[in-house]
Amino acid sequence: MTEKVNHIGIAVKNLENSIPFYRDQLGMAFEGTEEVAEQQVRVAFLKVGESRIELLEPTSTESPVAKFLEKNGEGVHHIAYQVKDIEQSLAEFEAQGMRLIDKVPRGGAHRSCIAFLHPKATGGVLTEICQCEDC
Ligand code: CMX
Fold it and tell me: Which atom of ligand 1 is the closest one to the Cα of 54?
């Protein structure tokens, strides 16, 4: 059902301070920044092989990423798996009794559709599934 690791989300306090490590020291291709208002974050994507690193900076104190930073500091926030059909995947998870944060997909970066599974149901790893045309 899952096709590949689409991206790994990393919570950071400030994108501009964090980008140079990935771009200049690890040599990843920087693809730009984007605000995802629905998720209250500003994101930067860096391509590595067929996957990406997504740096996440909160744009509001109410953002889930702001709460994560307050509790844990900077670090890995979620892993996103690409699926072909997100509605079908969510229906299958629901049928398995999986605890979902999103029963209906919402908008993510890169014009993707995303949905989160609850970390309490996934061994403590916030898990995203995503469907996108060009990623
Ligand atoms: N990874 C692992 N565990 C996490 C977590 C994360 N990223 N975020 C929260 N948790 C854990 C907390 O540590 C807490 O555990 P305990 O009960 O053991 O203390 C539990 O989940 C509940 O967390 P909370 O802070 O009490 O509750 P929140 O109101 O913060 O809700 C969650 C948590 C996961 C439902 C919420 O953060 C959420 O909906 N996340 C999905 C959306 C999101 O993160 N969007 C930003 C990414 C944007 C993008 O990729 O585009």
Answer: 50
Contact 105, 87 (CB under 8 A): yes
Residues 130, 83: contact at Cβ < 8 Å?
A: yes
Cβ atoms of 105 and 58 within 8 Å: the answer is: no
> How far does the centroid of ligand 1 lie from the alpha carbon of residue 97, in Å?
19
Helix (H) or strand (E) holding 16: helix 15-20
Residues 81 and 90 sit within 8 Å (Cβ to Cβ): no
How far is residue 9's CA from residue 13's CA, in Å, rounded to a whole number? Answer: 13
Nearest CA to ligand 1 atom 44: 64
Contact 116, 101 (CB under 8 A): yes
* Verdict on whether the full-model pTM lies above 0.85: yes
Residue with CA at minimum distance from ligand 1 atom 41: 116
Q: Is the pLDDT of residue 74 over 90?
A: yes
